[in-house]
Amino acid sequence: MMTSHEIDYTIYGEEMQFVEIELDPQEAVVAESGTFLMMDTGIKMDTIFGDGSNQDKGVLGKLFSAGKRLLTGESLFMTAFLNQDNGKRKISFASPYPGKIIPLDLSKYGGKIICQKDAFLCAAKGVTVGIEFSRKLGRGFFGGEGFIMQKLEGDGMAFVHAGGTLARRELAEGEVLRVDTGCIVGFTQHIDYDIEFVGGIRNTVFGGEGIFFATLRGPGVVYIQSLPFSRLAERIFASIPSKGGKQRGEGSVLGGLGDLLDGDNRF
Known about the structure:
CATH architecture: 4-Layer Sandwich
Number of domains: 1
Order of helices and strands: EEEEEHEEEEEEHEEEEEEHEEHH
């Protein structure tokens, strides 16, 4: 018997997608704050502690569920949307930046998916949004996401967001995939995830790709994004005009050093 609400959905768009979820009477969906787009009348919005999956465990259960979210840098609260009408009603959630929305039927992945802490978009009520601790020091100190990632557990639908173009790789037993640490969206529970040093002085100092990458060992499924938000933010910051009105080294071989040499920087 399913413990999560069974929901129908449609994903619209190409680069800036949104997911439209159809709720039967008394069905509900939970979402991160700031992802709501639009909804029909008859749907009640309510702010809840955590993901709403521990509502029958009393005050301490609710506080513990919500408190775990602080460790991933998320808010204590999420938003639940309940269809209180007698007929079907629709509600939509939008992706935060250009990319793809990934629908995940957790019942087909053994009831658990591990993902980046900022990848979660929304899910059927009953899906648990928790934390996944790393037991490996390499991953903890150098993995970009630290010791903690998010885990989605249950038997319902969950939706996560990937930046840019999405790649789905199914790894066989013992097969290894090396990935930039920021490009991982999520993976199934049997994937062995660790951090590996790139090695070599030239790679470390001049490579420009970082000195660590993630190694993912099968069996299991891995989702990769071509444009992590951190990479997008860096490019945007680099193009912001400086005090002199010029972009930060944009189009210049010397970059910031060129600005110093041409006298545009005043102290």
